[in-house]
Amino acid sequence: MIAYSTDVSVLDATRLTGFFVGWPAAPTAERHLAALRGSHRVVLALDGDRVVGFVNLISDGVLTGFVPWLEVLPEYQKRGIGAELVRRILAEAGHLYSVDLVCDPDVKPFYDRLGLFELVGMGVRNRAVLTGGPGAGESKGLV
Ligand SMILES: CC(C)(COP(=O)(O)OP(=O)(O)OC[C@H]1O[C@@H](n2cnc3c(N)ncnc32)[C@H](O)[C@@H]1OP(=O)(O)O)[C@@H](O)C(=O)NCCC(=O)NCCS
């Protein structure tokens, strides 16, 4: 049975393993935890003590919010957990005017079904920041 929590205060990095699947440079669990702690709102999907999915919202707290991360561990996907995380983070953002996110084209049908509509996104990426390794801050460019 999957439980959902918005409390990251008791979370520690050892419970954030297995995420950022397929990323060439994944953030460490400690950086992942820091990102969650720095967020406006977070929803965690929990199987017992194990974190099996997460979504976060960053925001000015008044009008606008952005959902930078959503992930469900591969062995827990296609059970409705991702959709439930999105529904819950949108409920957490009910006080805001706008909530935006950027996704790859293949994930668009997932968000379509949750009632989101298409926007045009623009951005830069600094991959070295993910790991905090040498060169952080130098290269801005493609994903
Ligand atoms: C996208 C993601 C969060 C979905 O999580 P999930 O728990 O598998 O999603 P759900 O089980 O709630 O899926 C709900 C529906 O969307 C569909 N769906 C899920 N991912 C999809 C995708 N990439 N493309 C199209 N449909 C998708 C599911 O098949 C399901 O449909 P169904 O109810 O008819 O079976 C998960 O695949 C994931 O973590 N992917 C890697 C990270 C990622 O892409 N995150 C999004 C960044 S914007």
TrEMBL record:
Gene3D superfamilies: 3.40.630.30. Residues 1-143 form the N-acetyltransferase domain. CDD domains: NAT_SF. GO terms for cellular component: cytoplasm. Pfam families: Acetyltransf_1 (PF00583). SUPFAM superfamilies: Acyl-CoA N-acyltransferases (Nat). Signal peptide: none annotated. One of its GO terms (molecular function) is N-acetyltransferase activity. Keywords: Acyltransferase, Transferase. Transmembrane segments: none annotated. This is GNAT superfamily N-acetyltransferase. The lineage of its organism: Bacteria, Bacillati, Actinomycetota, Actinomycetes, Micromonosporales.
